[in-house]
Structures are given as structure tokens and as C-alpha cells.
Amino acid sequence: MAKIYPQKPPQLVLDDPKRNAELKVFQSLKSLPDPYVIFYSSHWQKHNVYDGVQEGEADFIIAHPEMGFIVLEVKGGAIYYKADSDQWYSQDRNGENHPIKNPVEQARKSHYLLVDELSKLPGWPERKINFWHAVCFPDSLKRPGQVFSLDLPNEQLVDLNDLADINKSVGDLFQYCFGAKMPDNAPGTKLVGLAESLLANSFELKTPLGVDLERDDQKLVELTERQFQALTLLGKRKRVAIAGCAGSGKTMLAVKKVQQFCQLGLTVLLVCYNSALAEYLETRLYDATVANFHSLCQQAASQLGRKVTQETDQKKLFEDVYPQVLMEFAETTGRVYDAIVVDEGQDFHENYWIALESLLKTDGYLFIFYDDNQNLFHGQTNFGGLISEEPFSLNQNCRNTKRIHNTVMKFHNDPSGIVSYAPEGTNPEWIIYSDQADMHKALQKKLHQLVNEEDVSAQDIVILTPKGKNRTSLTPGLKLGNFVLTERSTSQPTQIMTTTIQRFKGLERKVIIMTELDQSVRFDLEMLMYVGCSRARTHLIVLHDAALSFGAL
Asked: Is 0.70 topped by the overall pTM?
């Protein structure tokens, strides 16, 4: 059976009674044997500087590697031509006449345009190739020896009877058009294949991932704006703990609350555990003091003239010495802040709270934002008895797309009641690597795909690892193809930021790539996955060792 494009007529054609003649010819030509190739309804455009764009359609193009090409124009109904007006007509079953275009001229025009376009294809030879045109009147009968016109010999017209034995009729048509020299100018299988690439070319215009991510991200921004309304529910409460899952907008709400306090003319301290987060928050707030807890203590020590960084026991330094220094500083300066806002409060040691409270005026505001599921450093969150009321809960994820949210919730110890109204987004990608070299290769390939093929900006990508400087292979300066890793956010198109999951807590990016997940981190894996995955706003990629299994994720 012949190869035919398309394999079946479009539904619009099937539903159109005016196309019945074409459908009749379609079914007939479809029955031709291999190696015939049939192209149905090939639309074309031609452009020149004088006439602009012209368009047309070849009803059928019949191709055979051992014979050639014939363009076949189809006209249904009873056909007649009036020479005095040079007008062709088609008559329907009701005897109504309809003016039609000259079918011979239509076939000829498509014939020469196709020859011209095929000759432009790489590999198309300069030699003559059998190419001609004919017409088909599938509802009409011609009489033997009937004369039509000089440009329409009887032999170039296919009628109702010819369709009954289409294989013989088409063979006779080729023989008439190209004669005894037909084999000399036959196209061969290769040229018929080239014609297929022009006339039946399948293609895809994908929406770059970067465009989808930008659209999803805008919807997430809108959700975050709505989350600000949660602050109004707190009324005039002075001391509040606000619990929220990753992505619930805690950091943005903390910033908003600081801005509200500043607008009231209050002295405000915004403090967090993560130095990278503090650096980011400093760029958002100018009227408040912003610091991570340890830098706050170091500043206090400096003003007191104390050198505390020489402590050899880091645990003692962080948990005991720093809080003591801060309280000593408060004794000399007094309670200086009208309001203290804490972000990522789950990371604070119990000794920190009394130290912070020593800086807060007696009737001051204390707002603590936290998520026990992200507690990477200490046990159960403890506010040192500073908060007496039940925490205010944020149960809506407004940072992550729904598919990322669903992944994050797999690692949450109590996902019940947490909802997402975010856009669906793309599926997270899970990539298994065999060793370090394989992981680097996968990273390089993925970065190239994202930036060079999917139109994702390099500054929207962060690579996260659970391993610190002494253990990670993702050191600043490492080259991955055309990309270079850097430890800080950058606007350079070939630089990709990389840092630890721990240092990136409280921060986010459109695209997060998590890697170096292997057996060495299996004991903290659930929490690391919860924290790391939730940093991704619109797309998540996880590269992990084959020894780790994430089930159906």
C-alpha cells in the first residue's frame, strides 16, 4: 500500500461535503502499491518583491522513485468550460453552476513552484527530474477521443472510470507524461525522501523552559502578596511565634513586618541564623538593623573591646560565649530596640532567646518566624519562655509550584493541613550518577540545557550540596563546560552559584539543583531534602548516588 500524508484526512475535510471529490480520490490513491508516496493537500506560499506573498494548494502529489512526480488537481461535480468567457464551471446535483478556477493552470502553477522549491534542497541534483501535472474529475466521464484543449490532452485527465483501476490509470499517466525516457530521469528513492522532508516535514516549536518558569514565578509572586494579609490577623499582639512550612512566605512576612514597624518610627532589629540570608535581607531593608546572630554578637564584642573569636571550642563559643557577650553589651547600652523580628527561629539555641530579649524594650514587639521541620542545628524549638501564646500557623505554600510542593511534603513530618494553590509547574527531575566524574558530567549537561537551550538565566540557578568546603567537589572556580562555579550570587551569564543547603536556608531561586547526595548524608537525608527541595520556586533537579533510593518521587 502507498505511503500517504496525512494517513487520514483531517476532520474538517471529512465534515465538509464540498470536499467529497477529494476524499474519493484520497481513498483511491491510498490503495496504490508500494513504493508510491502520496501527498494530500500540500499548501504552499511564494514570495517576490513585486507581488508579495502568493499562496496555493496542490490537491495531490503522486511520487514514485522509478517514474517521477505528478501534481494532480481535483474538481468535483459535472465539469464544463465556456471558451467565450474563458471560464470553468462545476455543476452540483441540483443543477446549480459554480465558477471554478482553471484546474490545469492550478496544477501547472503548483508543478513549477514545487520544482523550484525542491531544487533548493541540499542534495537535489541539477539534472532533469520527471515532474508534470494532470487533472482529475472524479464525478465525471470523458468520452474516448474527446478533445478538451491543447493544455489538457485526454490522457492527462483522470475521470470516474479511471479511479476504478487506479494502479493502471496512474501508471498510464506517468507513461504518457514522461514517455520511453522515463527511467532516465526517474528521481530514485533518495530524491523521493528529500521531497518528503519538504512536503511532509514534522516539526516542533517548544516553549523554552525559561518561559514556563517565568510564568509560574509570576503567579507565585501574586500568592506571596496575598500571604501578607496574614499579618492583619495577628491584631495588636506583642509577642508572636509564627510557624510555617517551607515556602509559606515566612521570610517575606518577616520583611513586611519590619517595614511596618519602621513606618511607625520604631527601632527595629531583624536577626536570623544564616549569614547568607542576612546579607540578602540587608539589601531589602534600610531603616532597620539586619544581622545574623553571630555577627550581632561579634559586633557587640568589638564595642566591648572583647576578643571572643579565639575560643577553641566552637560549640562553647556559639552556644555560651556569644549569648553572654550580647547580654553584657545590653547591660552597657540598655534595651535599644522597640521591636525584634527573628527569621528561621528554629535554628536558634535556647540561650540566644534571653540574650536577644535583653536588647528588647520592656513593652517591645517580638515576632519569631520558624519551621521545626527545618531545624538542622538543635532539637525542638524553644523560645526560652518568651512566647506564652500558641503559635500562629501559616498553612499555605506560596513559594513552590504544586509539583515541587508535593515533593517537599514527602519529607515533612506532618504534611496534613498544608495546602498549595500554586501553578502546577514542571515535574522535578531525578538524575542518578555513578561517581564524582559522572556527577560533574551530568551537571555540565544540565547547565548547558537550561541556559543554552531552555532560555533559563544563569543567575536564576543555584547548585546546593549538603557537603561543606572540606568535603565538596563543587569548589568555586570549578569549570563545568562553559560554566564556572562561584560561591556568591552573580549576574555573569557563565557563572553559576553553588553553596551548601544549610547556608541557603531562608533563600530561594527559580531553579535549584541538588547534588552530592550519597550514603554519607543518609542520616540527615530527610531534613536535608526538605530544606533543599523547598528552595526551588519553579523547577527542581536532584542528582543523587545510585545507592540512595527516593521511591516513586
From this structure: no
